[in-house]
């Protein structure tokens, strides 16, 4: 990150999102970005996996008002090679996808696959983590590298989880809340990045 | 070998007396001006593990003006909640139901993954669930708990549920295999009910078993209840009819009186003491299942057969057994369940939000909001907002210095033995007063492989942390300055090398004279509320041959990690009573209210710089 990337590697939107040109965003109309979010190269977001049941019922009535597949808050950081994929399940006999919601200041490490139903704010997801379908991750959660969060798991606030399957290994200390802030990290990437403050 | 990112651990003063007193050796701390008791702290001492914490884990008591670590605070529970359903559990429920979630939150007994309630698609066993089949709606059917991580299902232990909700209550009535288990209330009713008793007697009678082996099979709870009531009866009427004559007539094992009688024969009547006799004679042991007698089932051939067929994989691990909650399983008299096929779903253990108090002055130093959904804190006095934070960064003098420094400039790179390496320590002042920092580090780190340490600037001042609003208003200018600083930092090697080039060049010729390399006593860089200084270390060579003392030839775990103990003394003047930092006067130093008060805080910390390359 210290090396200056070639100009124009990122598309910077009006709301401050920095989206790498080499990121794979499928179904962009179903992906909501809150702003100031960084999407690094080789990230995949599956916006095409929208809820099929709702879409079929609403397609007759015109444009569906809400078929967001992935919604991402502010100051999120999606590292290289991670994948956001809405979870899917059988609902009343038919298979449908459900939206994936992500709060603010969520860091997703390289190579991680997120299929959670919701990810809260101030969440740090490490490298090569798998978050199973319909997992619910609350605020201020740290998921260490290589963790496999099983489907349907609920991770309460201020937890540190690790392992395969994930289990609670600790609590985020009182003084550790500020470490989840991603404002500084946001500034370090983009077309004219600033180095991280020491 | 995992790369090691530089770290700073701070020693909580709560362990001062113990750790400092047993410090490793006669290493005299040369540079520790602030250390009155002339002892250096050994980060490798076995006790150090328990007193060193990262800054984030430390709290700060405003009244005692002291650091508090997780080990020395006292905790109080604010709320209990289930980590799965995130419902608050009132403490009255905790008392009656225990510390487990009584909703439908269960963990897989095999892999501890969460269990989900799913309907069983397959046709259920008609013998077991005939009744439920008739009543249930065609779509719902019976339900089971399934783990979506390891595909375990409660049907494997023969547990199915009629309803998808209140699983906990349903599970409490079910044994493995689907047979019902009596609740305490039902047991009591059944015991009272004479019709059931006679019926039970009839069945045992019809089986023709007069012997104890054919007694009614009791489950654990019933047996306990029976035994308890039996003994209570025994205690209640010590001279009941069956103590005297019955014991004389049958001379069985069951009666302690027979034992005492025999004993009295052989010991010459010393036990014939009247009091003792009456007391001993009062009790006898349980004789029938009604009284709680349960013949031990010592026939383990079934378990052995199972072990032969399933092998070791079929047995439950210790961790799995520990997760099991007692008194619910099949386990009887002899041990717990030993096979995977006997494990039951684990109700989630509850979690708690806790507030923390200072152990000395009892003031609350951390208190979370009682509501489960919020992550806010009412009180949160973290050490990070009172004592300077310390960041470590390898410093590369790439243009001027030798190749060793450039190797260390990559974070996590191995340190070359015997080559001076520089690290930049950045102290950041969180409080609104200018602080004076005095550092002390031993010239040689303790341990078998001492590194030479030189703090180039052991005494400096850090400017106050200006107000948040000032910062916000000055944001653009500040950012500009920051950027400029960063630019300078990036080119730091060049710039600084020009200023110190003479000494560097001089130093390249004679590396031994490390003192002269950078300007001693000068701050490397300073900013609004931070100061960077340089520490030079000469890592030792990890040669094992010449090591003396115990454990000679083997490099112990993490012995190649370069750790520097450093004594930090922070002094500052704060306004008496005005500032939140200075609410109470410290010791006797508190003068008049208007006068600025002198404060000081001193503690040991440990800087982990990196691993040394093994030669």
UniProtKB/TrEMBL annotation, chain A:
<keyword id="KW-0206">Cytoskeleton</keyword>
<protein>
    <recommendedName>
        <fullName>Dynactin subunit 5</fullName>
    </recommendedName>
</protein>
<dbReference type="InterPro" id="IPR047125">
    <property type="entry name" value="DCTN5"/>
</dbReference>
<keyword id="KW-0963">Cytoplasm</keyword>
<dbReference type="InterPro" id="IPR011004">
    <property type="entry name" value="Trimer_LpxA-like_sf"/>
</dbReference>
<comment type="similarity">
    <text>Belongs to the dynactin subunits 5/6 family. Dynactin subunit 5 subfamily.</text>
</comment>
<dbReference type="GO" id="GO:0005869">
    <property type="term" value="C:dynactin complex"/>
</dbReference>
<dbReference type="Pfam" id="PF21711">
    <property type="entry name" value="DCTN5"/>
</dbReference>
From TrEMBL, chain B:
<dbReference type="InterPro" id="IPR008603">
    <property type="entry name" value="DCTN4"/>
</dbReference>
<dbReference type="GO" id="GO:0005869">
    <property type="term" value="C:dynactin complex"/>
</dbReference>
<feature type="compositionally biased region" description="Basic and acidic residues">
    <location>
        <begin position="183"/>
        <end position="195"/>
    </location>
</feature>
<keyword id="KW-0963">Cytoplasm</keyword>
<keyword id="KW-1017">Isopeptide bond</keyword>
<dbReference type="Pfam" id="PF05502">
    <property type="entry name" value="Dynactin_p62"/>
</dbReference>
<keyword id="KW-0007">Acetylation</keyword>
<keyword id="KW-0832">Ubl conjugation</keyword>
<feature type="region of interest" description="Disordered">
    <location>
        <begin position="473"/>
        <end position="515"/>
    </location>
</feature>
<dbReference type="GO" id="GO:0001725">
    <property type="term" value="C:stress fiber"/>
</dbReference>
<feature type="region of interest" description="Disordered">
    <location>
        <begin position="17"/>
        <end position="45"/>
    </location>
</feature>
<protein>
    <recommendedName>
        <fullName>Dynactin subunit 4</fullName>
    </recommendedName>
</protein>
<keyword id="KW-0175">Coiled coil</keyword>
<comment type="similarity">
    <text>Belongs to the dynactin subunit 4 family.</text>
</comment>
<feature type="compositionally biased region" description="Polar residues">
    <location>
        <begin position="17"/>
        <end position="31"/>
    </location>
</feature>
<feature type="region of interest" description="Disordered">
    <location>
        <begin position="178"/>
        <end position="215"/>
    </location>
</feature>
<feature type="compositionally biased region" description="Low complexity">
    <location>
        <begin position="495"/>
        <end position="513"/>
    </location>
</feature>
<keyword id="KW-0597">Phosphoprotein</keyword>
<comment type="subunit">
    <text>Subunit of dynactin, a multiprotein complex part of a tripartite complex with dynein and a adapter, such as BICDL1, BICD2 or HOOK3. The dynactin complex is built around ACTR1A/ACTB filament and consists of an actin-related filament composed of a shoulder domain, a pointed end and a barbed end. Its length is defined by its flexible shoulder domain. The soulder is composed of 2 DCTN1 subunits, 4 DCTN2 and 2 DCTN3. The 4 DCNT2 (via N-terminus) bind the ACTR1A filament and act as molecular rulers to determine the length. The pointed end is important for binding dynein-dynactin cargo adapters.</text>
</comment>
<feature type="compositionally biased region" description="Basic and acidic residues">
    <location>
        <begin position="473"/>
        <end position="487"/>
    </location>
</feature>
<keyword id="KW-0206">Cytoskeleton</keyword>
């Amino acid at each position: 990150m210290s090396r200056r990337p070639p100009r124009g590697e990122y598309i910077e939107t009006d709301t401050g999102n920095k989206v790498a040109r080499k990121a794979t965003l499928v179904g962009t109309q179903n992906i909501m970005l809150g702003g100031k979010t960084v999407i690094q190269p080789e990230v995949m977001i599956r916006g095409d996996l929208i809820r099929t049941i709702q879409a079929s019922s609403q397609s007759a009535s015109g444009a569906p008002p809400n078929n967001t597949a992935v919604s991402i808050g502010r100051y999120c950081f999606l590292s290289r090679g991670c994948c956001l994929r809405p979870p899917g399940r059988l609902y009343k006999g038919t298979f449908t996808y459900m939206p994936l919601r992500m709060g603010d200041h969520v860091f997703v490490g390289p190579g991680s696959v997120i299929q959670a139903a919701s990810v809260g704010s101030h969440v740090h997801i490490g490298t090569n983590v798998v978050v199973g379908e319909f997992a619910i991750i609350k605020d201020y959660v740290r998921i260490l590298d290589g963790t496999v969060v099983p489907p349907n798991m609920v991770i309460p606030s201020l937890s540190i989880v690790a392992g395969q399957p994930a289990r609670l290994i600790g609590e985020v200390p009182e003084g550790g809340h500020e470490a989840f802030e991603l404002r500084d990290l946001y500034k370090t990437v983009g077309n004219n990045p600033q180095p991280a403050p020491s | 070998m995992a790369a090691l990112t530089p770290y700073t651990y701070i020693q909580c003063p709560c362990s001062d007396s113990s750790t400092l007193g047993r410090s490793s050796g006669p290493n005299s701390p040369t540079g520790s001006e602030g250390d009155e008791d002339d002892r250096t702290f050994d980060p490798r001492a076995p006790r150090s593990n328990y007193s060193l914490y990262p800054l984030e884990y430390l709290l700060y008591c405003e009244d005692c003006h002291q650091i508090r670590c997780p080990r020395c605070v006292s905790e109080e529970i604010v709320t209990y909640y289930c980590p799965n359903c995130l419902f608050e559990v009132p403490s009255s429920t905790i008392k009656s139901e225990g510390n487990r979630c009584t909703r439908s939150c269960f963990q897989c007994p095999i892999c501890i993954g969460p269990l989900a309630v799913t309907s069983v698609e397959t046709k259920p066993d008609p013998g077991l669930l005939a009744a439920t089949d008739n009543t249930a709606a065609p779509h719902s059917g019976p339900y089971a708990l399934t783990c979506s991580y390891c595909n375990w299902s409660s049907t494997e232990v023969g547990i199915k549920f009629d309803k998808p909700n209140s699983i906990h209550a349903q599970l409490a009535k079910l044994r493995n295999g689907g047979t019902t288990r009596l609740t305490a209330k039902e047991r009591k009713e059944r015991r009272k009910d004479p019709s059931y008793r006679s019926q039970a007697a009839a069945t045992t009678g019809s089986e023709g078993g007069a012997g104890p082996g054919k007694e009614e099979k009791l489950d654990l709870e019933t047996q306990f209840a029976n035994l308890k009531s039996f003994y209570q009866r025994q205690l209640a009427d010590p001279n009941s009819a069956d103590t005297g004559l019955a014991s004389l007539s049958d001379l069985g094992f069951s009666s302690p009186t027979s034992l005492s009688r025999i004993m009295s024969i052989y010991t010459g009547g010393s036990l014939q003491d009247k009091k003792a006799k009456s007391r001993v004679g009062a009790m006898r042991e349980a004789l029938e299942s009604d009284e709680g007698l349960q013949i031990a089932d010592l026939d383990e051939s079934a378990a052995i057969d199972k072990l032969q067929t399933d092998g070791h994989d079929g047995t439950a691990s210790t961790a799995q057994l520990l997760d099991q909650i007692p008194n619910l399983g099949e386990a009887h008299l002899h041990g717990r369940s030993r096979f995977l096929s006997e494990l039951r779903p684990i109700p989630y253990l509850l979690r708690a939000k806790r507030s923390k108090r200072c152990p000395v002055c009892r003031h609350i130093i951390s208190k979370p909001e009682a509501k489960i959904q919020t992550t806010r804190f009412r009180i949160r006095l973290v050490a990070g907002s009172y004592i300077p934070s310390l960041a470590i960064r390898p410093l590369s003098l790439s243009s001027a210095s030798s190749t060793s420094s450039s190797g260390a400039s990559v974070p996590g790179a191995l340190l070359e033995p015997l080559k001076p390496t520089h690290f930049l320590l950045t102290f950041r002042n969180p409080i609104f007063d200018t602080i004076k920092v005095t550092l002390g580090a031993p010239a040689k780190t303790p341990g078998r492989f001492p590194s030479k340490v030189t703090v180039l600037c052991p005494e400096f001042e850090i400017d106050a942390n200006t107000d948040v609003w000032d910062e916000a208003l000055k944001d653009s200018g500040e950012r500009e300055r920051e950027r400029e600083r960063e630019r300078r930092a990036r080119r730091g090697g060049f710039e600084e090398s020009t200023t110190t080039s003479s000494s560097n060049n001089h130093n390249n010729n004679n590396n031994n004279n490390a003192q002269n390399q950078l300007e001693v006593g000068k701050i490397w860089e300073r900013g609004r509320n931070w100061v960077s200084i340089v520490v030079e270390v000469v890592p030792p060579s990890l040669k094992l041959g010449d090591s003396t003392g115990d454990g000679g030839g083997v490099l112990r775990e993490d012995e190649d990690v370069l750790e520097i103990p450093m004594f930090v003394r922070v002094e500052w003047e704060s306004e008496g009573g005005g500032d939140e930092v200075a609410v109470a006067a410290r010791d006797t130093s508190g003068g008049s209210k208007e006068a600025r008060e002198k404060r000081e805080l001193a503690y040991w910390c440990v800087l982990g710089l990196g691993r040394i390359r093994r030669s």
